[in-house]
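Q: Sequence in, structure out?
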Amino acid sequence: MTGKVITGTDTIREILLSCRTIAVVGLSPKPNRDSHRVGRYLLEQGYTVIPIRPAQKEILGCKAYRELEDVPGPVDVVNVFRRSEQVPSLVEEAVRLGPRLFWMQTGIENRTAAERLNAAGIDVVMNRCIKQDHEAIFGCRLTPIFFDARKKE
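A: Exactly. Output:
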C-alpha cells in the first residue's frame, strides 16, 4: 500500500481521533519553545507522547529517547520539529518504526522525504501544526479516547 500526502481536514480529523501514540522529534525541555507547548498540549488531550531528544532522559514527565530507532513500541505518528533539510536523516528510522503518519510541523517541508515515506506506505502531513489543527477541529476539547473513527456519528 502506498502512502499519500494529506491535506484534507476530514482525513486529519480521522487520524487525530484514531492515533494515540505520538513520537515528537525535537521536543524541547524548555517551556517557551513551540515543541514543548505542542507536546504538553498533546499530553493534555490524552495522547501518549514519546520525546525524541538526544541528551535528555525525560521531558514533560515522559521517558525521552535519543533516536526514533530507540523507541521500543509502536508509534502512530512521528511529529517532527527539525529543519526541512534535516528531515531526510529521519526517514529510514521512521520507515523501520512504521508509523501510520509522518507529520512535519509548520515551516517544514521536504518532498523527497515525503516520496520515500509514501513509497513505504506512510502518509505524510507537511507544513501544518498538529496542535493548531487539533484546536481547529475539536475546539480545544479532549478527544474521546474510546471513539471509533470508523463508526458514523
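The domain at 9-138 is CATH 3.40.50.720 (Rossmann fold).
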